[in-house]
């Protein structure tokens, strides 16, 4: 295979994991972004998205020699938009070059003798240093070659290094390298796709998810659901799903929407009817679903429900045979998920934990964040499913790590909501406008969609569940217990937990977590 020489400014096709090759440009990474350890790689900005990633050099191809080949194998709408963006970029490069060339010719023609004198004078200022010739007269050294002016750098890089330098002869025999045996020390850095075009103006370094851990036990990789793969290609594996609650319903709807073959089961069978109408198949028991499917997901309310689903009568374990895959998406404690992993793998099954961060709304929109740990190859087999249900997924290493991370996230989540409720009620008690309090918060560093939605819920008295109050209290309780197990204090979470317990005593369990507000006014 011929050597391919790449440098900053080159237009390329970049391949990341199982995503299809995507057009991009090699750019300089942010100064505070460390280069991954291991093999040589380049920092690539992908066209048609707001995404960037470190890509190994063997996963890069020059753009022009491989353009026709790539267009033939990918027909997606977003892919075509990305290609159009590249071509528009190239047109701008050529147009600017032509404009500069024409400007230079005009100046040369219109100057005359005076122009020549002026040109000579300008040349003395710009061309180089004065040196003495042998005759004692001053002469000019040629200007040293170097970087182009800053304002032209983006365009001239692409023109000089990509358009002309890379010809077909330099890349004959180029093949994508397999990613199956990825260097475990090499981590991908991906930018989540921005919902608002204006956010692309933010510094890259502020919006990158830096995914490196110091602990050797944790291997981390992130994959954005929409970053590079414009069209999700559903896996040909048969998918099972157990539990059609607030989160599960949205997940299954998106799996079906993206073309997956899904068999569903729910303790309350009537909840399955809507999905059967949309093309899902019905399983009579958890064991039957596992027997019928290659990969079975579950998403239930708490550790007891998760154990009962696996170990109970006609449970998951009865359907597990060698090669069957089980993905636990419930938010449970690390001990429970480790126990479930052990019983599944003892029967020859493959196990992955994959709790999700989000709400009913985010579940419906396919914008969840998936935290996975366990069987790495199963994580990869679930790629199209995770793309359908979420905006990003993280692989966190060994079983138990995802449960720990999820409990920490929800501990912060729940404590924050309790603090906001406390602030709203204190504002009211001291004669301050709650709406003004919210307006001020929304203009500061704490501004977020979550803050705005939850506060509006409170002000409108609308506590329709988006995330059950009883579930966030359960997560706080489990997080506190996890802290106790490692002798780590969690006083803030403990205080918030007491407020949620009071809200539960006021019959707010099945309302949204924002109903914790009512614990302060009764």
From TrEMBL:
GO terms for biological process: transcription elongation-coupled chromatin remodeling. Residues 125-134 have a biased composition (Basic residues). PROSITE patterns: PWWP. Coiled coil: none annotated. Signal peptide: none annotated. Residues 8-66 form the PWWP domain. It is found in: Chromosome; Nucleus. CDD domains: PWWP_GLYR1 (cd05836). It comes from the Eukaryota. SMART domains: PWWP (SM00293). Residues 102-169 are annotated as: Disordered. The keyword Ion transport does not apply. Residues 102-124, 135-156 have a biased composition (Basic and acidic residues). The keyword Repressor does not apply. Belongs to the HIBADH-related family. NP60 subfamily. It comes from Erpetoichthys calabaricus (Rope fish). Keywords: Chromosome, Nucleus. The lineage of its organism: Eukaryota, Metazoa, Chordata, Craniata, Vertebrata. GO terms for cellular component: chromatin; nucleus. This is Cytokine-like nuclear factor N-PAC.
